[in-house]
Each structure stands twice: as C-alpha cells, then as structure tokens.
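Kindly inspect the following:
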Amino acid sequence: MIEKLNYISDDELERLIHYVEQEELVAAPPDLMEHILEAIELSMPMTPVKNSRTKKKEFTAYCFRVITSVAAAVALVFLLPHLTEWMNLNGTVSSELFSKSEVVQTVPSKEEIVSTNAVPRKEEVVAEKTVPRKEEVLDDTGFFEKVISDTAEWLKKEKNRE
C-alpha cells in the first residue's frame, strides 16, 4: 500500500518563501570551507607538488635527451651509407664490396631485355590464355589451383626454351 508522505502544504510553502524573501540571508558556518577541503583531500590520492625549480630541471633533462637523440639520428643518416660500403655484417673490412658504378653497369637496360625476348609480349600472353569471367572465378573453387598449375607449366616451358 502506498503511504502518504508528509510534505508541507501549499500554504506552508508560500509562508516559507515569503519568510525567506523578507529576512536576511543565513551565513554559512565559518569552518565549512575547511571541512570541504578536508573531504576533497581525503577523496583524492596524494600527489606530490613539484616546485618550479624541480620542473625546470626535469624539462632541461628532457630537452637534453631529445637533442642528443636527434643528433645521433642525424649522425646515423650521414654515416650509415659510408659504414655499409666499408664493412660487412661481421664488422670487418671487406674488399669484396662493389662500388655503385659497377652495380649499375651490370643491370641491363629495357632495350636489352626486350631484344633478348626474356619477357614475352603482352599480345602473346593474352593469345595463349583464356581469361575467365567474374562469375566463373567466383563459382569455381579450384581456380587458384589452376592458376598455380598453369604458372608452373609456363615456367617449365620457359626453362626448356632457354
């Protein structure tokens, strides 16, 4: 069963409003602020307060670490190509390394590759292969196996051609 709560009536509420408007404001207790600050201190974890001198020292140390890291990175950018030319992975000087000009001279040009017929022309490849439609590829579960086997056959033909 619902109990009726004892609220003040409308007449009593109007009298209370009229009284509050007529009278002076009530002052807060003098130690209210201290109680609130104590409650806040108890609810918050203790964090040490750093003074400005400590903050400046930490910032200076951070700046020094950043500057040192940047200087090391810049030094590596400039030194790494020279170190890799003169040293192998073991750290010993190697006389077997090549200069850039020797390596570039060994790479064949596009015309040399095309003239030796090492790469088939596009028309030849398209003429030999039938390209499946999208639906065939999606419906066929063994399509990738066919592609792999066709590629293996093509590689065998190319090996035999050489």
Observations:
- The chain has a mean pLDDT of 77.
- The chain is about 65% helix and 0% strand.
- The longest helix spans residues 52-86.
- The CA atoms of residues 27 and 70 lie 61 Å apart.
